[in-house]
């Protein structure tokens, strides 16, 4: 059976299997978010930063030496770290209130893999459980033509509540930007997939129908990190993972 790269998770997932993701306890340095950062917006908990380097999620070109690729990535990260003003997280983020079942109803990303597949993606589910030290235990289920792929991952807290990294998924920087806990959340992800960096924003909803308030918060935020409307997709409903849906304990 040949595994495939999943844009949904940033990991290699078997075509019709389930993969358990483990995270080592070793402390790793937090990587910076993307260089184009948001302008002020009332009530959403983020602030402006300088313009900078944009990268798309596509692997290195054929014929480029590995040393050159690695050097280029290091230089980009060093440059971005100097120009970085962070995307702020939800004030007073409460992991227990955030726990439970969420539907990923919409996504936007500058990743080429995502853009090639976005018209064929379906609505996925995420079940969040508050863990020790501000971490989150997350169960994700992704419907596909061949069934339901499922992944478990530990979202490791970085500094403030609501700010995470997920090394096993290639998520360098995850932030809960805005949530009312009861109906929606806007989630920002800076990730590495297939050797390239990209930005993604997801809209979580407690139901399969996002509220007007949720859509407005999502649509107000993602342009501020340089993502245009034509990179966004509203995800169709699917029953492929209905048996795997579960409420938080």
TrEMBL record:
Gene3D superfamilies named among the record's database cross-references: 2.40.128.20
Region (Disordered): 1-42
GO molecular function list: small molecule binding
Lipocalin/cytosolic fatty-acid binding domain sequence ranges: 99-239
Superkingdom of source: Eukaryota
Entry's family note: Belongs to the calycin superfamily. Lipocalin family.
Protein name (record): Lipocalin-15 isoform X1
Organism from which the protein derives: Hipposideros armiger
Gene: LCN15
């Amino acid at each position: 059976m040949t595994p495939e790269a999943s844009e949904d998770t940033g990991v290699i997932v078997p075509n019709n299997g389930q993969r358990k993701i483990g995270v080592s306890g070793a402390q790793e340095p937090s990587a910076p978010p993307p260089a184009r950062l948001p302008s002020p917006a009332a009530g959403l908990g983020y602030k402006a930063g300088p313009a900078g380097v944009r990268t798309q999620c596509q692997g290195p070109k054929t014929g480029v030496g590995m040393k050159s690729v690695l050097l280029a990535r290091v230089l980009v990260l060093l440059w971005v770290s100097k120009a970085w003003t962070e995307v702020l997280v939800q004030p007073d983020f409460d992991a227990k209130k955030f726990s439970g079942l969420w539907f990923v109803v919409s996504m936007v990303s500058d990743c080429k893999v995502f853009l090639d597949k976005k018209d064929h993606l379906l609505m996925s589910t995420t079940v969040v459980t508050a863990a020790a030290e501000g971490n989150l235990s997350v169960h994700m289920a992704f419907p596909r033509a061949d069934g339901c792929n499922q992944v478990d991952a530990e979202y490791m807290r970085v500094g403030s509540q609501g700010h995470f990294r997920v090394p096993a998924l290639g998520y360098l920087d995850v932030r809960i930007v805005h949530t009312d806990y009861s109906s929606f959340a806007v989630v920002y992800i800076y990730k590495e997939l297939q050797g390239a960096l990209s930005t993604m924003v997801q809209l979580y909803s407690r139901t399969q129908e996002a509220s007007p308030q949720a859509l407005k918060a999502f649509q107000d935020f993602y342009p501020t990190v340089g993502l245009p409307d034509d990179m966004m997709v509203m995800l169709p409903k699917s029953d492929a993972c209905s048996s795997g849906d579960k409420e938080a304990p």
